[in-house]
Every structure is written in C-alpha cells, then in structure tokens.
C-alpha cells in the first residue's frame, strides 16, 4: 500500500472507530469514507493500467480495492440508512483476504512488519463481521477502540515512516510489530468492556446506528 494512501486509511479508521464509540454520527463520517474510498478505488485502478502486467505491482495494488470498496460501502449505508448485514458479510471476505495478503508479505514480498499489519486488519474486519453480520452488539466498543488504535498504529505511524524514509522491516521488526498489535487488541477489548458498562457510561451508538453503517 502506498504511503499516502496508508495515511488516509489511518484517518478513516480513526473516524469510523470514533463513530462506533458514539462520538461521531454516521452521516458526519460519510464524507471521509467517500473521499478515502474513492481514492482507494481510483488510484489502484490507475496503478493497474500503468503496471505493464508486472505481477508485483498488480499484487500491491489489488489489496487497495478491499479498503476502497469497504469505505464506499460504509458511506452508502450511512447515507441511505441501509442495514449492515451485507457490509458485515463483505467484511468476512476482506478478513479472509487479509490473512492471505499477510502470508504473502512474509513469503513473497518479504516484509514481516506489513505481514503483521495485514493480520491485524484481518482481526479488525473479523470483528466488523461479528458486529454487523451476526449482530454481536456487545463488540461495538471493542471494535471501535481497535479501529481507532489501528488507525494510528497501522496507518499514520507506518505512513510517516515510509514518507520520511525511516521505515525498516525484518523478522525482528515484524516480531515487535506483532507484539504491539496484539497488545492493542487486548487493550481495546478491556477498554470496550469497561466503557460499555457501569453508571454514566457513554452510549453504545449515536443516533444513526453504527451497527448498520460502520467499518
């Protein structure tokens, strides 16, 4: 994924995480999902047209569509009020593909850090599937916190490292990244459980129900 595209993937993950946490109404988040979703469809299409059939370039561009279609789907649901089941099942497809892309990062691309990042995205999209398709509403705040954390940890941080030429990858860096992402997954679960219970806790959803619209 390009560094510029990755930066804005991080932004929209943060926005959608805040939406699930009840801090941003779904319609207020639709614009960012439209902008980033459109970018993640148009840019990889241009890359594919100019790839000259290079398998490495095609592989790199192909994963971007998963994000683009997801965010456009989110925007569609937010603006039309459609239910989230279709988006939830699509999220399962994305989660399965993300596992494959993660494996390919280790075996073909030789980038263990992004292998771990893809695995964390698979975990996030699996949560979206459970929340949206299967109606596991108790996961909404866990999913929101994890999306917010990944927006920073797998979007903004690696994007700026790539943009400044400071990005490094290898098995050691991949192991460190994996540990950090696993810790964020657990912390999100703990925060989601705590913030969803007790007197005075924040509402589970804004007026436009995130379960129907959010990824």
Question: What does the model show?
Answer:
It is a single chain. The protein is mostly helical and 215 residues long. It has a single domain, classed as Serine Threonine Protein Phosphatase 5, Tetratricopeptide repeat (Alpha Horseshoe). 76% of the residues lie in helices and 0% in strands. It is built from seven helices and no strands. The chain has helices at 3-20, 26-49, 55-80, 85-109, 112-132, 140-163, 171-195. It starts with a helix and ends in a 20-residue tail after the last helix. Mean pLDDT is 90; it is low at 197-213. The chain crosses the membrane at residues 6-24, 31-50, 56-74, 86-104, 116-134, 146-168, 174-192. It is a multi-pass membrane protein. Belongs to the AmiS/UreI family. This is Transporter. Residues 200-215 have a biased composition (Low complexity).
């Amino acid at each position: 994924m390009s560094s510029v595209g990755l930066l804005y993937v991080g932004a929209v993950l943060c926005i959608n995480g805040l939406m699930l946490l009840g801090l941003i109404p779904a319609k207020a988040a639709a614009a960012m999902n439209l902008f980033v979703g459109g970018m993640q469809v148009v840019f990889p299409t241009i890359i594919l047209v100019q790839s000259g059939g290079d398998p490495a370039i095609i592989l790199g561009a192909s994963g971007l569509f998963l994000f683009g279609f997801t965010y456009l789907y989110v925007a569609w649901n937010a603006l039309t009020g459609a239910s989230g089941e279709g988006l939830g099942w699509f999220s399962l497809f994305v989660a399965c593909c993300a596992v494959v892309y993660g494996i390919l990062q280790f075996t073909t691309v030789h980038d263990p850090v992004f292998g771990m990042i893809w695995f964390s995205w698979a975990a996030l999209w699996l949560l979206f599937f459970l929340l949206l398709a299967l109606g596991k509403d108790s996961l909404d705040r866990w999913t929101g916190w994890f999306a917010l954390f990944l927006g920073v940890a797998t979007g903004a941080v690696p994007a700026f490292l790539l943009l400044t030429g400071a990005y490094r990858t290898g098995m050691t860096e991949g192991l460190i990244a994996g540990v950090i992402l696993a810790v964020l997954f657990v912390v999100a679960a703990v925060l989601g459980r705590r913030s969803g219970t007790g007197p005075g806790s924040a509402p589970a959803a804004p007026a436009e129900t995130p379960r129907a619209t959010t990824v």
